[in-house]
Write a structure and sequence with these properties.
293 residues; mainly alpha; MetI-like fold; 2 domains; 68% helix; 0% strand; MetI-like; transmembrane
Amino acid sequence: MSDITLAKPFPDKRNKTKVDLARIIGFAILLIVTIAMILPLGFMLSTSLKTTKEMLVFPPTVIPEHFAWENFKELFVNEEIKFGRQYANSLIVAIMTVIGTVFSSSFVAFGFARYRAKGSQFLFVLVLSTLMLPYPAIMIPQFLLFTKLGLHDSLLPLILPSFFASAYMIFLLKQFFSTLPNELYDAGRIDGCREVRLYWSLTLPLSGPVLATVAIFSFIWSWNDLLAPVLYLDSQENFTLPIGMAAMLSSKFRIAPWNLMMAASLLSVLPIVVLFAIAQRRFVQGIVLTGIK
């Protein structure tokens, strides 16, 4: 029987053209969205490097004629702004909030994920139902509580609630903890680990991605929070960045210092960008893996 060589079919140029066209359109859409996202950042950078005189020029200049790097220095040396103190306050509140949220929420989530006691599912649903309560609904009772405790005009009312867990973070962590196999915990118990040791030495080391996700969410929410600082903080020494930057517009400047505001905005974005750049891989991995069994 003679070998028959089948001719390869000619490639369909129309399909290739459609694929190339789809890629070009997709790339164009991504380029337009990227430019739209970068434009505000470019405007902030341009304005932050302008002098007060050039800031008021109309139409505005895109590239400053004179790069006023002293605007960034002005933020830290001006006694009316006290930007350095506010920056430190925001870092303290954000870091402590991350620590409190990660450990309290993970501890509660560990209990919901590993133990099947009677009524545990009802308690979990009850915890999740608190997500339907907006912050203004508990704002006044919480304010009265911290005022009675003598904690008004301090950073503690912004930090302490994070040590009592977050319903959303509990849900996120519980979904991830449920994916860990029971055999790991059985092996740990055989080796003599108690429940707290199973949580600390077994669960947390295996939960890096979801813990990074919780940490980033907690940091961003605390760093950008304006309502709670407005509610609890009175003295400028205790202001965090959001309320401090808002107070710059009502300060004793003759003209609204938009160049200083833009410089402050750039510096306030920096920690979030650095945090996301460091934990980006674990953050994306935590979002993808959460809920997968």
